[in-house]
Amino acid sequence: MLQDFTDVQLINPTCDLHSEFIDLVAEYQKTGEYRLFDQNFLTLIQENFAAYIQYLEDNSKGIDLKPGFVPATTFWLVMQSKVILGESRLRHWLVPTLEHRGGHIGYMIRPLQKGKGYGTKILSMTLEKARNMGLSRVLLTCNQDNLASARVIQKNQGKLTSEGLLENSDKIISRYWIDL
Ligand SMILES: CC(C)(COP(=O)(O)OP(=O)(O)OC[C@H]1O[C@@H](n2cnc3c(N)ncnc32)[C@H](O)[C@@H]1OP(=O)(O)O)[C@@H](O)C(=O)NCCC(=O)NCCS
Q1: Which residue's alpha carbon is at the smallest distance from atom 16 of ligand 1?
Q2: Other residues' Cβ atoms within 10 Å of the Cβ of residue 150
Q3: Residue 158 CB less than 6 A away from ligand 1
Q4: pLDDT band of 177, cuts 50, 70, 90
Q5: Which ligand 1 atom sits closest to the C-alpha of 33?
Q6: Any idea what DSSP says for residue 36?
Q7: Is residue 3 part of a domain?
Q8: Residue 35, domain member (yes or no)
Q9: pLDDT for 155-169, tens place per residue?
Q10: Which domain holds residue 14?
Q11: Residue 25, in any domain of the structure
């Protein structure tokens, strides 16, 4: 079936969607994909959501970054301005750790919304943000065995440029570039 994306937008995180975000976290807990959330952030999300949103804004502006981290802007993919379908993160430039793993863009689609084309959509909309930010090409990385993510990247014209062992692991990481 052809997916209708007319009601889907990529927005900046907002306190208005606090209860929706709590639902999303609960969905991750129920389906066992909880590990995608850092425990410190979970506490902040539950106890002081405004501070969490402020943290994301600061992160985008490069305020109070952890050593070795670069500014990164978080986006939420939302349907009808009220349902959060997924999240993406656009890192403004690369450092060696991101060249090895992570690249410019990370994304995830909430468990019960996977397989409907939203992964492909969130990457394509985040690429548009990267283009607007002045980037001319972006690096995407994914574990070789993450077939869904590899497909999302390929459907967005990602060109596989290198593969290698992930540091301290027996996993293979694939690196793709996308020209904007
Ligand atoms: C990767 C992820 C974002 C994909 O989201 P999604 O909404 O399911 O993706 P789409 O519906 O757009 O599917 C994209 C393609 O992947 C394929 N696909 C989806 N799940 C798949 C799976 N488990 N195995 C193989 N292919 C799969 C789809 O069939 C589709 O290809 P097609 O159009 O040729 O049929 C989602 O699985 C996710 O959030 N994973 C956890 C976080 C993650 O791995 N992020 C990426 C880090 S690199």
Answers
A1: 148
A2: 18
A3: no
A4: very high
A5: 41
A6: G
A7: no
A8: yes
A9: 999 999 999 999 999
A10: 8-179
A11: yes
